[in-house]
Amino acid sequence: MLKGFQCRSCQSTNGQLVLDLGEQPLANNFLELSNLGQSEPRFPLRLAVCTECWLIQIIDLVPPVELFSDYVYFSSYSSAWVKHAAKCAERYQKEFKPNHVIEIASNDGYFLRHFAEANISHLGIEPAENIAVVARQRGVKTRVDFFSESLAGELALDQCADLIIANNVFAHIPDIKGFVSGLKVLLSPAGRAILEFPHAVEMITRGEFDTVYHEHVYYFTLTALEPFFARHEMCITRVERTPLHGGSLRIFVQHTTREPDETVAEVLEEEKRLGVTSLGFYGAIASRAKAIKEELQFRLHEYQAKGQRIAAYGAAAKGSVLLNYCDFTPDDVEFVVDRSPHKQGKFMPGTHLPVLAVEELLKRAPEVTLLLAWNFADEILCQQSAYREAGGRFLIPIPEIRLV
Description:
This protein is 34% helix and 23% strand. It is α/β, with parallel strands linked by helices and 404 residues long.
């Protein structure tokens, strides 16, 4: 068992190390040219599973204020995610007809703007002031704060929400007990909270080790979550799958006066069949991560031996993790391109690779581009048709290494 471990869900001290990615910089801590020579903090990045409730969690926490108060991830720079959000917003308006909508970690208003445009009462809760400014410019009411049970109680005095949205944020919250208690306080009696997050089953079976970084405290299976919500007198009433982020779950949560439908039992049964309640299931990700690292190192050195130049696409957090875990430097990869102007002109954490505009990929024409944002491969390959027609090729690292 893992010394010093205590599960943040059930308090068990029975934990098992699943993955050790070494000491890593904060994955969204981009550097300016002026501070490249300064000491860069690194933190252990280790993943464990509780062998009592089977919740997967990182062992070494970094305070949220260091991660989210000034943030560089703007949701609107992913066309696929923006399209996904628009589709969900349209569906929820028709299906649930909400009177008041709250989104936790509302980012730049990419989702709530659809409710604002429909004149539906709403509020975004976003901890990063720089991102909240953009949301407000879009007409989205936004409060700069971290969601908590205390904040939920304050907001509920004014108006409870009959729809609470939490896209890709639940896994970021160290105090998930306080988070779910806040949902219970803020949600109207007949309301529902809808949470989306990467499915840990997909992460383990597909070897998506780069999904693990300090911001992601948890990696959820329904097996771990169903009893957790029940302990807080909340019920997961429906589960849906989405292909986003390498495979995600969308759960619908209501007060325990509601009953789950057949989708909950189906996913629980599937997870049981795959073995999520046995340690053997979790060993796959460490061995897969090691194999991917060795294969990528071999391939990049092989390309260089042929005189081919290498770049990377996607200055996302997962890209930072992969580059640092594989020990890549500017001698291996010349630069990274990204669509977000908030990252361009800066340098990747740890590796210090320069981040350039996407247009530089076609201009500089490296023979091979490592696709760090592999979870949006279809979108990026389509956008970069001119680069590919000119002879450039993309090396996709996960789930299977392939050159396209």
